[in-house]
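DATA SHEET
Item: assembly model
Revision: 1
Owner: S.N.
Input lines:
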Amino acid sequence: ETGVTQSPTHLIKTRGQQVTLRCSSQSGHNTVSWYQQALGQGPQFIFQYYREEENGRGNFPPRFSGLQFPNYSSELNVNALELDDSALYLCASSQTSGRRNEQFFGPGTRLTVL
Amino acid sequence: AQKVTQAQTEISVVEKEDVTLDCVYETRDTTYYLFWYKQPPSGELVFLIRRNSFDEQNEISGRYSWNFQKSTSSFNFTITASQVVDSAVYFCALSEDFSGYALNFGKGTSLLVTP
């Protein structure tokens, strides 16, 4: 059973650019959540995808968008990057059904915006 | 609105000492779920425990124990006989859902255990 994987590991962009981060969910999981973790802070919920549809969103502007694919992998897209977007982006997958449905987090993508 | 407060930013202990990490939460929900996660330097969050609001029984798992007190809105985590491998950032989190949907995290407590 493979865990949650994310790519790339690190990324450097400049202000105004666009970025796409990728997440492969754990085998058998159909739900993916994305979190932003600024340095020295706790993770903040961006949004969740379930069966390819957005299933809830935190307090993030529309320039943060996502996709979920039929194989349940997911992308996080951020347009018009700002300096404050520099953070560790964490993806978590879970199985929305059954009794366990525990979330498993990936190692994250560290984004630096210059 | 939900809020989780971890007042201890950093804690440093010597190996084999016991250490307690504090967590205080606020929520208007009558049903909610509390979580603890460990974040080692590698970055990924490791699930430690989930507790629902109706279950105030304390839990022990090896050297880890958790004390949930609804009366004081606290969910504290104790590591007994700490080890160097316990060094990490620990997060307390709150969710309205058993699955941990839209987790609301505290700012974390950085624990350093020295030999």
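QC remark: The CA atoms of residues 29 and 95 of chain A lie 4 Å apart.
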